[in-house]
Amino acid sequence: MAGRPVVVTHVESGTSASQPDRVAIEEPLEIRLHGRPFVVAMRTPGADRELAAGFLLSERVIRSADELGAIECCGDAGNIVNVTLSGDAAAGLERVLAERRNVTTNSSCGLCGRQTLESLAVDVPPIATTLTIPSSLVLDLPKTLRGSQTVFDETGGLHAAGLFTRDGALVDAAEDVGRHNAVDKVVGRMLMSERLPLTEHVLCVSGRTSFEILQKSLCAGIPIVAAVSAPSSLAIELAETFGITLIGFVRGDSFNIYAHAHRVIE
Q1: Does 50 score more than 50 pLDDT?
Q2: Are 200 and 166 in contact (CB under 8 A)?
């Protein structure tokens, strides 16, 4: 979805003038389970079904595509997604709804609806893969991802996430005002096409890496996560514990590896 047109007052060298501009769109998306409210997330419209699927996977509402039933967009404005679960996920619906507060998350945080710190604990095994990539490939990831950011070119206000093969080919990319939303859209699309786990892939994000980004990567089975900015301390701890190669500050001809450096070879 393209940016929204606005009129701004541009100030330069002490002179001001009105001029047209475009800004990134941020709107609420209500995710319902079996017609019942679950969470309201702030996001950039587009790929809402994929966003919902990826979000439910990382929140451990579902564990696989088999537990994902119908995903229907509804509401006059298209800002409601109703998800029907199946299998064990459907059987645990009442527990899931009871454990979660119905809150509005913001575009920079995907875990604000959690009730306790204990509920942040992931229940998936560490990632085991023989995947390795050359350092030259790492350096190319942000440039390739940037080339896919069409809406960013208009607004300058969107994050991006890109999924790459071990050879550096871009498999999928998504833009959103929230870093975690962009990851959910990519992971959700792979989940809906039954391509998980992504143990032979690399994720690159345009901003910093927080705990939530690493958690979503872990749930999708992604062994290598790279970013143009810094990771948080909790993201590093999660990467170390669960076998994720975490790379930050990928800029120019350098980067830092914070965990499991053995997957990046010279």
Answers
A1: yes
A2: yes
